[in-house]
Task: structure prediction
Amino acid sequence: MDFLADETVEVFELNWSEQEFQRIETECSAKEQEISYLPYPSY
Result:
């Protein structure tokens, strides 16, 4: 998820509730699955 770091830095600086955090985490996982076919380098 390193390549999403720049986009999520501000999000994680906020005080999210557990439910909101899980929702964000799920959306990030969905993004990773959607773009998993792209040639991202291995971090």
Notes: Helices lie at 5-13, 18-34.
